[in-house]
């Protein structure tokens, strides 16, 4: 078994889907958590001056979705064939597009940049939510299994979307209202977070802001 070392901030955010992947696969890994106040001091040794980064038997690479996809294939959580894997990838990328469309609001809301956070919320976040969430709701409407691409078991698409929604709900002003009008996404969240192999991780993970 390879030795896996994940390095990310002491946050959930982009690192949590990867941690959950290890949990569901039942694979041990070294979870290196860097305090947010020290993140800039730890970038020089990363491939792209960014985190998360994973090291597999001494080989390092970055980009959270690349890491997630690699692990999904290694652990048998990428679907039964390449076509299914590609469809799962497309849903991961779609949620990543959603997050990218409101990054200016997020940075301002967290105090990383200056600006009118209320104005950015209305101009960036609300339209992005209304544009993107219906895609996932419709996919779940067409699914007979409750998983995002109608697979019999969880895939990295379910994992990435559910974990990312959890992080999103921790930063938006109206936490409970974020999924209002999307009952199938709400059901998907409950189904994913009830996964038996995830319970130990959920019980033991440290409390963080997002």
UniProtKB/TrEMBL annotation:
GO biological process, alphabetically ordered: glutathione metabolic process
GST C-terminal domain segment(s): 81-210
Domain GST N-terminal: from-to ranges: 2-79
Leader peptide range in chain numbering: none
Single annotated GO MF: glutathione transferase activity
PROSITE patterns: GST_CTER, GST_NTER
InterPro entries: Glutathione-S-Trfase_C-like (IPR010987), Glutathione-S-Trfase_C_sf (IPR036282), Glutathione_S-Trfase (IPR040079), Glutathione_S-Trfase_N (IPR004045), GST_C (IPR004046), GST_superfamily (IPR050213), Thioredoxin-like_sf (IPR036249)
Taxonomic superkingdom: Eukaryota
Family matches, as PANTHER family: GLUTATHIONE S-TRANSFERASE (PTHR11571), GST C-TERMINAL DOMAIN-CONTAINING PROTEIN-RELATED (PTHR11571:SF256)
Record's protein name: Glutathione S-transferase
Organism for this UniProt entry: Pristionchus entomophagus
């Amino acid at each position: 078994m390879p030795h896996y070392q994940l390095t990310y901030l002491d946050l959930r955010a982009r690192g949590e889907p990867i941690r959950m992947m290890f949990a569901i696969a039942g694979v041990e890994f070294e979870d290196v958590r860097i305090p947010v106040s020290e993140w800039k001091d730890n970038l020089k040794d990363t491939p792209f001056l960014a985190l998360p980064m994973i090291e597999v038997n001494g080989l390092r690479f970055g980009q959270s979705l690349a890491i997630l996809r690699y692990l999904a294939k290694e652990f048998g959580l990428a679907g039964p064939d390449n076509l299914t894997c590609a469809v799962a990838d497309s849903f991961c990328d779609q949620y990543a597009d959603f997050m990218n469309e409101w990054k200016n609001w997020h940075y301002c809301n967290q105090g990383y940049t200056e600006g009118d956070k209320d104005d950015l919320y209305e101009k960036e976040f609300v339209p992005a939510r209304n544009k993107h969430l219906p895609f996932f709701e419709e996919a779940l409407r067409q699914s007979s299994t409750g998983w995002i691409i109608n697979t019999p078991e969880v895939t990295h698409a379910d994992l990435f979307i559910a974990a990312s929604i959890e992080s999103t709900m921790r930063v938006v002003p109206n936490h409970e209202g974020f999924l209002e009008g999307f009952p199938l996404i709400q059901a998907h969240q409950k189904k994913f977070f009830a996964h038996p192999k995830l319970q130990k991780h959920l019980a033991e993970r440290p409390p963080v802001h997002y």
